[in-house]
Amino acid sequence: MSHNLERAGHHVLCSVPWRDVQPLFQEHRQRLFWNNASYLSVEQKRRRQCNSSLPKERYELAVLHHQLTDPDTNDLIPCRVLFVFSSVDQKVCQKERQRAVAKIRAGLEQITRSVARGHFSWHDPVRIQRRVVKLLGKRGAARYFRWELVPLSAQEQAALPPPQRGCRRPTHRFLFHYDAAAAQADADDDGYSALLTTAPRIHSADTLFTQFKQQCYVEQGHHQWKTPLAVRPLFLKSPERVEALVALLQIALTAYHLLQRLYRQAVPDNAPLAEKRLTTESILRVFRVCPLVKEATALGCVVHPVQLTPRQNHILVRLNFSTPAQTLARRLPRYLRE
Question: What distance in Å separates the CA atoms of residue 302 and residue 296, rounded to the nearest whole number?
Answer without folding.
Answer: 6
